[in-house]
Amino acid sequence: MSYLKLDNDVNIYYEDQGQGTPIIFVHGVWMSSRFFHKQLPHFSKNHRAISLDLRSHGRSSHVQSGHTIANYARDLHAFIKKLSLENVVLVGWSMGAFVVWEYVKQFGESNVKASVIVDELASDFKWDDFPIGAFDFPALIHIMREMQMNRIGFLQEFISLMFKHPLSEDDFEWILKEVTTIPESIASAILFDQSVVDYRDYLDQITIPTLLCFGREEKLIPVAAGEHLHKHLKNSQLIIFEDSCHCPFLEEADRFNKIVDNFIQST
């Protein structure tokens, strides 16, 4: 458990275990590195497993500016440079997938061995030509307002949509605590940006090996999102987790870890 100060005086919290190929786990919007607590012990046996809290998320410092996907990717790049990491594997869950794609878009693929994309669309927005998107404009307005006026009530419902099966009281409690660490104003700012970014036109430029991991339960993200990515990413494979929703790395942790490990070793 450590902190790394970026050039812009943002303190990034991260956990760093093991040696070998660096695997960086990038969390979703409002979430944190704690969501990967079932991954670091496994992957650190044969790799260098790293999870970080993006700016203002989790235990990283709360700052009022810089909350865009493009800037989160710049933070990730600075993080990788400061730790002198080479030939990294980037694992992006939910919004973390956008950060991974934006990182590759800005900084290229030369230092990226492979990527793992977990349960995300090429864009969360329901554009006129993209009906499988997660949010239309009225839904986005509703969520933005709920985050300001009814955050706990909204998040209690949202958390239940992330999982196929009901959570234990302890699990629900720590997850709710993690997702309410980020201040409401910042939560709204990054929610808007991550909801309207669109990587559909960029996918065919990505050549690194990519593993797509999607939950069969479609409370949040449809399986069609994974099929769309698989169709447009030249060097990809799609795995469906039959007993999971948005978090296969938690609901089917052993299978997820094994499949990702095999993928990394094969690249």
From TrEMBL:
The keyword Hydrolase is assigned to this record: yes
Keyword Disulfide bond: no
Pfam family, one: Abhydrolase_6
Keywords of the record: Hydrolase
Sequence ranges assigned to domain AB hydrolase-1 in this UniProt record: 23-258
Top-level division of the source organism's lineage: Bacteria
GO MF terms, alphabetically ordered: hydrolase activity
Protein name: Alpha/beta hydrolase
Organism: Bacillus bruguierae
